[in-house]
Design brief:
Largest sheet: 2 strands, antiparallel
Radius of gyration: 31 Å
Structural class: mainly alpha
Number of helices: 19
Distance between the termini: 55 Å
Number of strands: 6
Order of helices and strands: HHHHHHEEHEHEHHEHHEHHHHHHH
Oligomer: single chain
Mean pLDDT: 94
Length: 480
């Protein structure tokens, strides 16, 4: 074993004199083709798992000690060595050193550095363990941490929605169906719709975490391990809620990644929808939204342009995550039990999904904090183009006419108003009474913008009193 004073030294600049064994080479007499070796290697991306892998390695070493497989001195030496490696790799530049360029994967990297530090004892760490259950536990540990981080990033985007909604709490906006003006709503009500989408996304993410947070370590390559390690103890030490119940499934299961990418795809779809709305609303034709300079770009040719690139990128990157979802399903669909090297492809898909979603959420929150509502234009648009037609139909219903007949009457009035070049509130009472004797002087109040909004006061409606309640409820939900 290497001397303990070695732990006080800086990271080595060359490989230790101790020969580093290939993790799988004993069966082979020839050399691996260098192109295949590069094709097979995953260290350039799976090194992202290094802290999770080191954490799991330390618990595995202690479990071997508790089971009487390793003497306490070996356990102590291994865990100290793993701690030193953790300190070295805290500097990202350490992993970029040229001597590591041919490393096969993060697991062989850790073992090689451990043997450099403590000598032959380092080889004992892999007792009763396969890279199959090793990578499974490292990936689950890593993803669990990313889930917790992403939950807070989504929450911050929800806070940005609330902040913007409260800034324009009483300001109206046209509501649309089929991208055709439908009925007036409050801008805050529009923003709270996206708050609800993200709330469901957070709930989905929490549900995914339940199935991520299960320990596969101790499953070996596929059949379990011959050494009496306490899997339940390891699960508790690593913060897992339980252990996997079938070793074949444990080493080949990637459902939790598929579920996570599916959650991410749904969240990206929601962000893309919001981006599309804001892109449309920021056009000169709509003019409801003004984009701040912090989230816009210009044209290399046309000096007057102010482009919503931030939003267009979010919209575009949704397709990237959708592709990852299909890639994961396609990769897994034909795999026989148990482990297959195809599963190595899950890492880049997972990592890019995490990064794309996280970046898109952060940019969305930034956009929301850098836009303004053109309140006058939005208000004028909210009550024009017959958006109060349904209110006029409801007026007739309250005066005793069946809704289907009222719908027909108002349809004919709208045709008449279009022919006259008038809005509904510009018609005279006499003109309205040509279509129904149920109209009286109070009809104009019934179809005013304030009445149209205030009337939708049931739970979930756009009435100002309901929107105020939902904003307060949202703050309680987020604990702010």
């Amino acid at each position: 074993m290497a001397g303990t004073d070695e732990f006080d030294h800086q990271p080595p600049t060359t490989n230790h004199q101790t020969p580093i064994m290939n993790l799988w080479g004993g069966r082979f007499t020839g050399e691996t083709d260098r192109h295949f070796a590069a094709f097979n290697a995953s260290f350039r991306f799976d090194r992202r798992l290094i802290f999770a892998d080191l954490q799991a390695c330390a618990v595995h070493a202690r479990a071997l000690g508790r089971a009487g497989v390793l003497p306490e001195a070996d356990v102590e030496s291994i865990t100290q060595g793993l701690q030193k490696i953790s300190e070295w790799v805290a500097d990202p530049a350490f992993l970029d050193r040229p001597e590591f360029s041919s490393t096969e994967d993060v697991h062989s990297f850790i073992e090689s550095r451990l043997v450099e530090l403590i000598g032959q004892v380092g080889y004992k760490l892999h007792t009763g363990r396969s890279r199959n259950d090793q990578v499974a536990v490292a990936t689950r540990l890593f993803l669990r941490g990313e889930i917790e981080r992403l939950d807070q990033v989504i929450r911050d985007t929800q806070i940005a929605l609330i902040e913007l909604a409260e800034k324009y709490e009483s300001d109206p906006l046209p509501g649309y169906t089929h991208l055709q003006k439908a009925q007036p709503i409050l801008f805050a009500h529009f923003l709270l719709a996206y708050f609800q989408m993200l709330a469901r996304d957070r709930a989905r993410l929490a549900d995914v975490k339940k199935r991520v947070n299960v320990l596969p370590l101790g499953s070996g390559a596929l059949a379990g391990t011959n050494f009496p390690v306490d899997r339940e103890w390891m699960a508790a030490e690593l913060g897992f809620e339980g252990v996997t119940r079938n070793s074949l499934d444990a080493v080949s299961d990637r459902d939790y990644i598929i579920e996570f990418v599916s959650f991410a795809a749904t969240t990206m779809m929601h962000l893309s929808r919001l981006a599309e709305d804001l892109i449309i609303y920021s056009t000169q034709e709509f003019g409801f939204i003004k984009l701040g300079d912090a989230i816009s770009t210009g044209s290399s040719l046309m000096p007057q342009k102010k482009n919503p690139d931030s939003l267009e990128l979010i919209r575009g990157k949704s397709a990237r995550v959708f592709g990852h979802q299909m890639a994961m399903l396609t990769m897994a669909k034909g795999l026989p039990l148990a482990y297959n090297k195809d599963l190595q492809e899950d890492k880049e898909t997972l990592f890019d999904t995490i990064d794309t979603l996280s970046d898109s959420l952060r940019v969305t929150a930034t956009v929301l904090r850098n836009i303004e509502l053109n309140t006058e234009r939005a208000r004028n648009a909210a009550i024009r183009d017959y958006t109060n037609a349904t209110d006029l139909a409801d007026y007739l219903v309250r005066n005793g006419l069946e809704f289907r007949k009222a719908h027909e009457v108002i349809g004919r009035i709208v045709v008449f108003a279009i022919e006259q070049g008038k809005e509904l509130d510009e018609l005279t009472l006499a003109e309205c009474q040509q279509f129904s004797p149920l109209f009286t002087e109070d009809l104009f109040e019934a179809i005013s913008l304030s009445s149209s909004l205030a009337g939708k006061k049931q739970t979930g409606g756009t009435a100002p009193e309901q929107v105020k309640k939902e904003l307060a409820r949202a703050r309680v939900e987020l604990g702010i």
